[in-house]
From TrEMBL:
GO terms for biological process: glycerol metabolic process; positive regulation of DNA-templated transcription. It holds the Pfam family G3P_antiterm. It comes from Brochothrix campestris FSL F6-1037. GO terms for molecular function: transcription antitermination factor activity, RNA binding. It comes from the Bacteria. InterPro entries: Aldolase_TIM, GlpP. SUPFAM superfamilies: GlpP-like. This is Glycerol-3-phosphate responsive antiterminator. Gene3D superfamilies: Aldolase class I.
Amino acid sequence: MFNNQKILPAVRTMKEFDRMLKTSFEYGVILNVHINMLASLVDYANRSGKKMFLHADLVSGLKTDEAGTEFLCQTIKPYGIISTKGSVVTTAKQKRGGRNPTRVHSRLKCLGTKH
């Protein structure tokens, strides 16, 4: 599923994020981030060849409702979204599509997406 990567490093701080970008890991998870930092973190990760999942429940300043989920899918466009909230998963699955669909995960379990 993750090109045989058995560990998904989770980053909580900028220091951890910078350290993760220097590793050989292709996939990672962004935790505990402020909404103002999202676009630049995802963009920087993409330019560094990293595919980052975003834990929607842990984004400071983001309400995890339909509008917040649409914002993540349509504006931020992380590689994937993780959430424990069914409404976030449902909305994200509805909003994915096109050339680079957002992968949607709930409770860290893949829901019908293939890489």
